[in-house]
Design goal:
3 helices, 125 residues, 74% helix, mainly alpha, 0% strand
């Protein structure tokens, strides 16, 4: 997907920052879209978001190994600050969704056990 970002081990910091300029907006967009869907409580296939975030994470790790300088450009610091906010929100939304799924599972399990106990699902009545 981000084939232009391969093998930054032989490049300098400025090229690493250029790579971040490509990756961070994609991450910001992905998180924003995922958060919108999670907030709307739409039923959606979550796999595309997981895949995109995994690809972007691999790309970020590649760039991180190369960018050794502490002199990150201000524009990238600002992008990272926005992404940090999105990641925090994303974490809370995903946590709430998982809690809701666990609660639904508990309710369904309890209902199935209650039905089984009253003989509804047994072969012999």
């Amino acid at each position: 997907m981000l084939t232009t970002l391969k093998d930054f081990s032989s490049r300098n910091d400025s090229e690493g920052w250029a790579a971040l300029r490509l990756i961070l907006p994609k991450l910001e967009t992905t998180l924003g879209q995922e958060n919108e869907i999670l907030e709307s409580r739409e039923i959606s296939d979550h796999e595309p978001f997981i895949t995109r975030k995994n690809v972007l994470l691999r790309e970020l790790m590649t760039v991180q190994r190369r960018a050794h300088s502490n002199t990150m450009p201000d524009e990238l610091r600002e992008m990272l600050a926005r992404i940090r906010i999105l990641v925090t929100k994303n974490h809370k939304l995903l946590e709430a969704q998982l809690a809701a799924m666990a609660e639904i599972t508990d309710i369904l399990t309890g209902a199935a056990l209650a039905e089984d106990q009253d003989g509804t699902y047994t072969r012999h009545r």
